[in-house]
Design a protein that fits this description.
mainly alpha; two-stranded antiparallel ribbon
């Protein structure tokens, strides 16, 4: 499996998609092409059902939002696709659509719904469509053959509903594993923490998607296709709430980034220093297996790690606090933490800022990362020539006995050496 680059603002990265990721995309593409070819050759067995669910999935893709931090940016399309995969009856009448027809309708509807987003240059990624095809195909394979062969004729009432919910939970788990595996193949971050974050995200909007998919399937079996718009409304409202929450989080992060620029505007630190430290710290945190909440705290603390320099009468040359005495570094860190607390930012961020100058054995891991990355960035900026980053890393390694945690420094080295990285440029 080939190594790939990590995208870090302020650094140039060149990387290739690994073979495993290409293989997964190829499997999804093959399944989609075969399904579309079979349907075009034989036609649709359930045209009304296919049209209704196709419209629902297309509308769900049309209402997706780009750049969302949530794991599922098109929950209505996902719920509609899963409900279609687990549909056995329509208003009391058995359906006879198969797995390939389900996949073909989902693929066609998803592509139609993606057209406006692609036209605006914000179309879904190949990973998004790959997961949609493979998860729907998995759910359909688990349910449709059993139902069409009459294996579920004796299942009714609560037992049938429990079966659908169980299949949806199993599908959600498989989707989480697939998403984590694809992210691992693309970034080479540890698989365990990626899977943990995916499972945590599934408990959010993912649970609403599974519940809506089960309710849609059961409702259509009783009252027919008119149940689709009725049961789509709650999920649309949930999606709107999640979207607003995501917008608040983006605004919150932009506010923190603006506060962090105060030291640059005042001339205490080079332009872009805080953003480079934040991006590289987040990558190192990923490499060490930190969870998403810890990564968020780490990123915010890295953005604001130099805010305490505003208390200095005379700026430190190039903002390089690593050359100051330990007492002076600790004083600046404590003042920075006090400023962060006054801004109303999470107290955990203030703790990281305050403790970044402590002996590393007494620091939380987030503070150790900020300290090592900040020192590397300052050293690499001071060193001239193509060997600057390597020289800075060697200096960090030589200081691991006293100032920097060895595991953090080695993780930093792996992040920097993964792919092709240019020297960090200031200003």
């Amino acid at each position: 499996m080939s190594a790939v680059g990590v995208e870090i603002p302020g650094y140039g990265v060149v990387g290739r998609a690994p073979f495993t990721l290409t293989l997964v995309h190829a499997v999804a593409l093959l399944l989609a092409v075969v399904s579309l070819a079979v349907v075009l050759w034989h036609g649709l067995d359930e045209r009304g059902v296919a049209l209704a669910f196709g419209i629902l999935i297309a509308v769900g893709e049309l209402t997706r939002w780009s750049g969302a931090e949530e794991r599922e940016s098109a929950p209505l399309a996902a719920a509609g696709a899963l409900a279609y995969a687990l549909l056995g009856e329509n208003a009391g009448h058995r359906t006879d659509h198969g797995v390939l027809e389900i996949v073909a309708v989902v693929v066609a509807a998803a592509l139609i719904g993606c057209v406006p987003h692609v036209a605006r240059g914000r179309g879904p990624t190949a990973d998004h469509l790959t997961r949609r095809v493979l998860t729907v195909g998995f759910a359909a394979v688990c349910f449709q053959p059993l139902y069409n062969q009459g294996r579920l004729m004796g299942w009714g009432g609560p037992s049938y509903a429990l079966l659908l919910v169980s299949l949806l939970v199993l599908t959600a788990l498989c989707d989480a594993v697939l998403a984590a595996a694809m992210a691992h193949a693309r970034t080479r971050w540890p698989f365990g923490p990626l899977l943990r974050d995916e499972l945590r995200a599934t408990l959010g909007i993912g649970s609403a998607v599974c519940a809506t998919g089960a309710v849609m399937s059961l409702a259509v079996a009783v009252v027919g296709l008119w149940a689709l718009p009725v049961f789509s409304l709650p999920l649309l409202l949930t999606q709107l709430s999640v979207r607003r929450y995501a917008a608040v989080r983006v605004t919150y992060r932009q506010t923190i980034a603006s506060l962090a620029r105060a030291t640059e505007i005042a001339g205490y630190t080079p332009t872009g220093h805080a953003r480079r430290v934040a991006a590289l710290s987040r990558a190192v945190g990923r490499e060490l297996g930190l969870s998403e909440p810890d990564l968020t705290v780490l990123e915010y603390a890295a953005l604001m790690h130099d805010i305490g320099q505003l208390s200095l009468v005379d700026p430190v040359p190039a903002g390089a606090t690593s050359v100051l005495s330990a007492d002076e570094q600790r004083r600046i860190a404590l003042l920075g933490g006090a400023v962060v607390r006054q801004t109303g930012v999470d107290a955990e961020v203030a703790v990281v800022v305050e403790r970044q100058a402590d002996p590393y054995r007494e620091q939380p891991v987030t503070a150790r990362i900020v300290r090592a990355v900040n020192a590397y960035e300052e050293m690499a900026r001071e060193e001239a020539g193509p060997g600057g980053p390597l020289t800075a890393l060697e200096k960090l390694r030589l200081a691991t006995a006293r100032d920097y945690q060895p595991e953090v420094v080695e993780s930093l080295a792996r992040v920097l050496l993964r792919g092709t990285l240019t020297l960090p440029q200031a200003g």
